[in-house]
Amino acid sequence: QVQLVESGGGLVQPGGSLRLSCAASGFTLDYYAIGWSRQAPGKEREGISCISSSDGSTYYADSVKGRFTISRDNAKNTVYLQMNSLKPEDTAVYYCAASIADLCDAYDYWGQGTQVTVSS
């Protein structure tokens, strides 16, 4: 069964850090571009980061550039999103997704999401 499972969300104070994990089962992440998106209440889903399978190149939305870092550990079949200097506006449900075509805007599989809340 193909599955993506996010973890690592939670409540953090402004300025704090969290590391989200996206673990795959039923397929090998090596061959997929992996992206992170988020959706805040009342807002559309926003693609915030992506890492290529072919050359490891990365993409970041302006809203997170310089604060978030995406990485992959193929041995663990897991992709991470390190989030630093968190702001209240980063509060959202965060989703990871996988693209076999190595595209950062067309995903084949999605996780169920993990809640991140940034608040004092």
What does this structure look like?
This protein is mainly β and 120 residues long. 0% of the residues lie in helices and 49% in strands. The chain contains no helices and 11 strands. The model has no long low-confidence stretch (mean pLDDT 96).
Concise account of the structure shown:
The protein is 0% helix and 49% strand. The chain is mainly β and 120 residues long. Strands 2, 4, 5, 6, 9, 10 and 11 form a seven-stranded mixed beta sheet that branches.
Name some characteristics of this structure.
four-stranded antiparallel β-sheet; about 120 residues; 11 strands; mainly beta; single chain; globular
- End-to-end separation in angstroms reads 39 Å
Helix segment tally: 0
| Nearest-integer average pLDDT | 96
Give the % helix. Answer: under 10%
Question: How would you sum up the major sheet?
Answer: 7 strands, mixed
Proportion of strand residues:
over 45%
Which runs of at least 5 residues are low in confidence (pLDDT < 50)?
Answer: none
Instruction: Give the overall shape, derived from the CA principal axes.
Output: globular
Instruction: Write down the secondary-structure element order.
Output: EEEEEEEEEEE
Structural class: mainly beta
